[in-house]
Write a structure and sequence with these properties.
The structure holds two protein chains of two kinds. By secondary structure, chain A is mainly alpha-helical. Chain A has 17 helices and two strands. The model of chain A is unreliable at 96-102 and 428-448 (pLDDT under 50). The relative contact order of chain B is 0.31. Classes of the chains: A mainly alpha, B alpha+beta.
């Protein structure tokens, strides 16, 4: 039996999570220089295209088809759902991680169509790929990014989603990752680090100012991310129930606290509380609470938010010390925030819902759960980093991942897309000849 | 004739304009400019990283005046643009050989 309430809730959550990717485009776009804003936003939008197609053809099957042999199932899904075959008539009943064993929690009352589950999970794959793009602002060839996003989704995201949520080895071991701290954020953060290393620093990095060109866009993006993240986190309960409510509230708590914590760090360290700080802190909080939101008590969400806000506010400075140009701080916010969230579960987990999952140390749980919460990030981060590095190197050696030096100086908007983000000048705006511009202005006046 | 150029703080433009109009100046050219003098720009902080921003937004105002009026016009501009704080800007003048009103072809002081 399909439950209409659950189905409606999951459809709404799916749309909420999809909105996060355009939100991310604004968040990232505002942080680049004006000459790269369109390319930055395009890298997010094209992720929607590439990942959707890959998901339909084979991605969903590789991530969530648990019909393969036990050995295969350990590392990757089977091929029974290629082209979403068999999904229309299937029903989502209980967590696939349990290998089909339906517990009381996954009672028939919460059943919803597998097609909705597939669409919901697709939106996670999309934003994970898009997150990586922040590391390579201002300097990537668009075609190379399109190819990389396809390869990365195929070789990294789909298998890793299977490891944790699709019945693979991390899930079987009992790792706790409610909404994707490991699968989404650590995964993307590690890939971002690899790309930043392979592509190298932007020309003039650390010498000339590379200020965010539009912080109002960054704040708009932050708002959209925050809003969509309720679908991401509360929706990951896959039912409109008590735990979804907990996940929703914890998301709000950790995000608000992390944003505040970041501001306090800034005020004390730099002398000013900034808008980029509040935006970054909010996202750091959202990232850190993602794996924990359905597992912890609200007081723990306060602590996790505080830890994430402070840790990430300091972590974003690492790139200057270590010398890698992670342009928009994907590593400092998503990798570090993701690790804070994943590891915190080893201490704070209060409501494990699978047999093999345990409570955290503070609730009398075994140290093995903490070990697993560290193993997960190390395994996923290491795998993602290694594969991303190799894939990016191969692309760089063959088609080239980075634009030419003069294209980079002119701006990737005009050289990659033949567009510019803004038309603010009155004379030579956008390269339109002055006579045309004048004619347009005149005719408008006549019309008025 | 002299061309008087003033680089001033943008928010002082209205005061300067009003003072010049009261003095009897009939036209001027204003453009956005950026630069620095002794103030040496300012510092901005993004995610803990400090950026030295050398070029500060300014307004450049250009006025043509007759030789006899030039010093008075300069005084009017300086008085109106002054805040006493660093970054108030500069005013200078240079001699001008020829001025022509495009519409009528008038030359010299009549073209002002």
């Amino acid at each position: 039996m399909i439950d209409s309430g659950t189905t409606a809730w999951m459809l709404v959550c799916t749309a909420l999570v999809l909105l996060m990717t355009p939100g991310l485009a604004f968040f990232y776009g505002g942080m680049t220089r004006a000459k790269s804003v369109l390319n930055m936003m395009m890298m997010s939008f094209v992720s929607i295209i590439v990942v959707t197609i890959a998901w339909v053809l084979y991605g969903y099957s590789l991530a969530f088809d648990a019909s393969g042999s036990d050995t295969l199932n350990f590392v990757v899904g089977g091929l029974d759902n290629l082209g979403l075959a068999g999904v229309f008539n299937a029903v989502y009943e209980g967590l696939i991680v349990q290998g089909g064993q339906v517990t009381a929690e996954a009672a028939a009352a919460d059943n919803f169509p597998m097609m909705v589950f597939s669409a919901f999970q697709l939106t996670f794959a999309i934003i994970t790929v898009a997150l990586i793009s922040g590391a390579i602002a201002d300097r990537a060839k668009f075609g190379a990014w399109v190819l990389f996003s396809l390869v990365w989704a195929t070789v990294v995201y789909f298998p890793v989603a299977h490891w944790v949520w699709g019945g693979g080895w991390l899930g079987q071991l009992g790792i706790e990752d409610f909404a994707g701290g490991t699968v989404v954020h650590i995964n993307a953060g590690a890939a971002a680090l690899a790309l930043a290393l392979v592509l190298g620093r932007r020309q003039g990095w650390r010498k000339e100012p590379m200020r965010p060109h539009n912080l109002t866009l960054v704040l708009l993006g932050t708002g959209l991310l925050w809003f969509g993240w309720f679908g991401f986190n509360a929706g990951s309960e896959l039912a409109p129930d008590q735990t979804a409510g907990l996940a929703f509230m914890n998301t709000q708590i950790a995000t608000a606290v992390a944003a505040g914590a970041w501001l306090v760090v800034e005020k004390l360290r730099d002398g000013h509380a900034t808008t980029l700080g509040v935006a970054s802190g909010a996202v750091a909080g959202l990232v850190a609470i993602t794996p924990a939101c359905g597992f912890v008590d609200p007081w723990a969400a306060l602590v996790i938010g505080l830890l994430a806000g402070v840790a990430c506010a300091y972590a974003v400075g690492l790139k200057y010390r270590l010398g890698f140009d992670d342009s928009l701080d994907v590593v400092g916010v998503h990798l570090v925030g993701g690790v804070v969230g994943a590891v915190s579960l080893g201490f704070f987990a209060a409501y494990p819902f699978l047999e093999q999952q345990n409570e955290g140390l503070l609730y009398g749980g075994p140290i093995s759960q903490l070990g697993l919460q560290i193993l997960g990030p190390v395994a996923v981060g290491g795998y993602s980093f290694a594969v991303s590095w190799v894939a990016a190197k191969v692309i760089d050696r063959t088609m080239g991942f980075r634009v030419d030096a003069d294209q980079e100086l002119a701006g990737v908007d005009i050289t990659m897309h033949a567009e510019t983000g803004y038309d603010l000048g009155t004379v030579y705006a956008s390269g339109v000849s002055p006579s045309t511009a004048l004619a347009t202005t005149t005719s408008k006046k006549v019309d008025a | 004739m002299r061309l008087i150029t003033a680089v001033i703080k943008p928010f002082k433009l209205d005061d300067v304009k009003a003072a010049l109009e009261q003095f009897g100046i009939k036209g001027m050219t204003v453009s956005e400019a950026s630069g620095y003098g002794r103030q040496r720009g300012h510092t901005e902080v993004y995610r803990g990283a400090e950026y030295q921003v050398d070029l500060v937004p300014k307004v450049r105002l250009e006025v043509l005046a007759e030789e006899d009026d030039a010093d008075d016009v300069i005084d009017v501009i300086v008085k109106a643009a002054q805040t006493g704080k660093i970054g108030d800007g500069k005013v200078w003048s240079v001699p001008v050989d020829t001025v022509i009103r495009v519409r009528t072809g008038e030359r010299g002081p009549e073209a002002l």
